[in-house]
Amino acid sequence: MLQSLKHSDLYRADQHSYMLYPNRRLPGFLQKNNVAPEKVSDSALTMKLVEEEDRRLLVRDEAGVFHFNGRFHNANDVSRVLDDLVQEPTYADLVPAERDFILDLFESTFNHRAFTGRSGTFFAYEGLGSIYWHMVSKLLLAVQEVYQWAVKEGAKAAVIEQLAAVYYDIRQGLGYNKTPAVYGAFPTDPYSHTPMNSGARQPGMTGQVKEEILSRWGELGVTVQDGILDFAPTLLQLEELTADSVEFTYIDLTGSEQKLSLPANSLAFTFCQVPIVYTLADKAQIEVVFEDGRVQLSAGGQLDKATSQHIFDRDGQVQLLRVQITI
């Protein structure tokens, strides 16, 4: 399904991403609110209204096509007119027999039940042809969750690889992978949506940031289960590791700026303001550097509960984690 999505009407090649709904051509003004004569030919109420030249409910034009009262907003307005008509001797016997028919005709004419908001009726302003970046980030996170489930359940390697490929293809369509010319704004800034034939619109108006934080932790393979920190970055791409030795700058638990030298083929980030350095190795291992200078080694990618709690508490007991990873 995910592979087919890119070949569907939801895909926008210009942004390498997906719309909430397929773009569509709306009917013109004169194509709306039209009731064909044959639909009401058996309606005694409608024929009586025409005979009486009563335009409160339906109006017949010169071509014989009927139209509901242009002042109607919804079925409640139709019901109110029917309530008025039933009080009049001319229509008293006709309205009860045809109330449901008239209301059903109104609904079938306007199809209000299919209304999905501005996404299916407006132009721009999160309307037709628009990409909702929050929704794309939700798609990204959902694919990541399926990937993680596949890894956990021991799915076939080919399936896991395909899920990872789809994941990063979706990620490639998100802002920071684009040039300002393509994105239509600063690529690192979150925007609500991108209308058809336009750049990104509504800066900051998006829940995308939340999903991006969650998906980034997933890419780094950081999870917490039963109060225990685990590092298993199976989704992390090798190109994210440094090619040469570099310096990593971060803010420590005291609010001070610190610098950390990183070797080639490494990556650094902080968790609860504790620096964590990933380095490539043949086997997974964690080296914990404590405040008092002690160094604790443990095989695998999982910390013990006590050390994890020190990090969660931000008590300064843990100064650094060096995590050897295998990708």
Task: Write a concise synopsis of the structure shown.
With 327 residues, the protein is an alpha+beta fold. Helices cover 33% and strands 22% of the residues. Strand 12 (266-271) and strand 13 form a beta hairpin.
* Tally of DSSP helical segments: 10
Strand content: 15-25%
Order of helices and strands: HEEHHEEHHEHHHEEHEEEEEEEEHE
Could you say which structural class the secondary elements and strand pairing correspond to?
A: alpha+beta
Number of domains: 3
Head-to-tail CA distance between termini: 27 Å
- Helical content stands at 25-40%
Q: Tell me, what's the shape?
A: elongated
**Spatial strand arrangement across the major sheet:** 12-13-16-14-15
Overview of this protein structure:
There is one protein chain. With 327 residues, this protein is an alpha+beta fold. The protein has three domains: 2-18 and 131-220, no CATH class; 29-114, no CATH class; 222-325, no CATH class. It has ten helices and 16 strands.
